[in-house]
Amino acid sequence: MNEGLRRAGARLGMAVWLLGVWLLLWGRVDALTLTGGVVAVLVAYAVSRLPTVPMVTRVRPLPLAVAAAEFAWDLLVSSVVIGWHALRAPGRVRGAIVEVEARSRSELVLLAVTTSVSLRPGTLLVDLDRDRSLLRIHGMPVRDPDEADSTREGVLRTERRLMRALVTPDDARRTEDI
């Protein structure tokens, strides 16, 4: 698909989303509300740089189900680990900021990865350098470089699962070698 056409489609997706929110806020659909919404969307695009809606070229159901199941398992394990440390020695639990260089360039996949990481007990997104796809994650417990590497590998595993499940134009070539 042509890059310009894909960008126009993504911008149109964001415009439709904004118009839908406008209509929900007003609580009714009539000619005046619809016209006002279109004007509001056009003004919003004229005065700001709105993000585009990330495009997904293909959703793979089986890898998505695997990613969801592994996320549920990660939630259980991390909850038990953090709970154990909180009960056993709450004052001695150490954390660290771990840098993770993501392979994905897709905003959608990075959003899914950072949301997944932040929902798990013991990990939290601190910073995202989108230009370099560099994530800074606060992880607990992290007492030594091996545990930092384990945290980093956990984030990269999550990213690989999501890249397999959600194929985007930005990552289409990268998913073949994962």
TrEMBL record:
Chain ranges passing through the membrane: 12-45
Q: How does it sit in the membrane?
A: Multi-pass membrane protein
Annotated localization: Cell membrane
Q: For this protein, what is any one GO molecular function term? A: monoatomic cation transmembrane transporter activity
Q: Name one GO cellular component term.
A: plasma membrane
* Keywords, sorted A to Z: Cell membrane, Membrane, Transmembrane, Transmembrane helix
Family as reported in the entry's similarity comment: Belongs to the CPA3 antiporters (TC 2.A.63) subunit E family.
Name this polypeptide is given: Na+/H+ antiporter subunit E
Organism, as annotated: Actinomadura spongiicola
